[in-house]
Amino acid sequence: MYWSISPKSKRRLCVFRKSCSAYVFEKTLQKGFLAGIKAFVFRFGNCRNGCAVFVNPIDGRLHMILPNNQLLDEEFIARHVITFYRETNSNKRKDRV
Fold it and tell me: What pTM does this model have?
């Protein structure tokens, strides 16, 4: 329903690789209404300001920490977030050189 009401150009970009609405829709179809509600609550609380992307100094992999302190690996982070992080940090590295 959300997809039919809100035009794609007006939707807020999700920080997750699979959009919040697609994730909730999938959970609802697979596991039922209650699971869909739980998925919505989780995503609503974590797909907001407060996420931080960083490179793990031990393994060099990109991660994102959510507001609930859960860590996500790069394959779950939206591509636009990864691109923004890399562009922003590559500019900082050039300034330091």
Answer: 0.74
